[in-house]
């Protein structure tokens, strides 16, 4: 077998979210988080002011991320905002707050109906599996989502940009994943939905780039050396043909 590992992007690759209104989803997340904090007896401003504070903080963080090229962690935002309001939570309560904050995304996210069979086929081919994701949702939130989908155990290597000072297409984040999964770039297949980060980044590292068709790449120019699939269940056959 020429290839030893397959690395996946998370959103709209493993978990399909489709187009959504980010601001509306954040507002919903804040509302549900507010109710949870209220149930714990935490001191709170009006819900309107709480949501406004979170939205402003996230907007500023996103602007700074675009400037610096690295993502923030939603848990840090929740803790920083909460401490300004005087919140005192245990670590377990902070984690639960993060899960509640992420839950609106879980409600709209789904995997392909035969995805578990697909990853089982890949594992039987002797391939190690991992994830490399640009995200600010928080590692604990994404792990919780994978656990709820009953697929976390299939991805022992998970590299989330919120834990690093860089993100895709920066070569360093791919290097971290390659080191963790124990394979050279030439032995890795990378599957993602974004041309600018997933495909450009994996090509730059010398991986086999596979673009999964999604709303995020509609109308985009696809590099000639990228393979294209409509569904992840095409992967086992594609990889076999490349070997």
TrEMBL record:
Its EC number is 3.1.3.5. Pfam families: Hydrolase (PF00702). One of its GO terms (molecular function) is 5'-nucleotidase activity. One of its GO terms (biological process) is small molecule metabolic process. It is an enzyme of class 3 (hydrolase). Its cofactor is Mg(2+). Keywords: Hydrolase, Magnesium. The keyword Manganese does not apply. The keyword RNA-binding does not apply. InterPro entries: HAD-like_hydrolase (IPR051400), HAD-like_sf (IPR036412), HAD-SF_hydro_IA (IPR006439), HAD_sf (IPR023214). Gene3D superfamilies: HAD superfamily/HAD-like. This is Pyrimidine 5'-nucleotidase YjjG. It comes from Sedimentisphaera cyanobacteriorum.
């Amino acid at each position: 077998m020429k290839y030893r590992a397959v690395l996946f992007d998370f959103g709209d690759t493993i978990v399909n979210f489709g187009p959504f209104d980010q601001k509306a989803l954040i507002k919903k997340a804040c509302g549900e988080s507010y109710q949870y904090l209220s149930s714990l007896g935490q001191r709170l401003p009006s819900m309107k002011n709480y949501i406004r504070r979170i939205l402003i903080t996230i907007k500023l963080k996103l602007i700074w991320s675009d400037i610096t090229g690295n993502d923030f962690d939603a848990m840090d935002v929740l803790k920083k905002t909460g401490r300004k309001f005087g919140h005192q939570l245990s670590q377990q309560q902070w984690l639960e707050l993060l899960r509640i904050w992420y839950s609106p995304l879980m409600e709209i996210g789904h995997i392909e109906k035969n995805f578990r069979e697909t990853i089982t086929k890949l594992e039987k081919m002797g391939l190690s599996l991992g994830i490399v994701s640009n995200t600010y949702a928080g590692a604990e939130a994404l792990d919780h989502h994978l656990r709820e989908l009953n697929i976390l155990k299939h991805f022992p290597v998970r590299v989330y940009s919120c834990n690093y000072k860089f993100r895709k297409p920066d070569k360093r984040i791919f290097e971290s994943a390659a080191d963790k999964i124990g394979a050279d770039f030439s032995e890795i297949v990378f599957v993602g939905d974004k041309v600018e980060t997933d495909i450009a980044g994996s090509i730059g590292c010398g991986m086999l780039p596979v673009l999964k068709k999604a709303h995020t790449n509609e109308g985009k120019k696809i590099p000639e050396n990228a393979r294209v699939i409509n569904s992840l269940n095409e992967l086992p056959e594609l990889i076999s043909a490349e070997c």
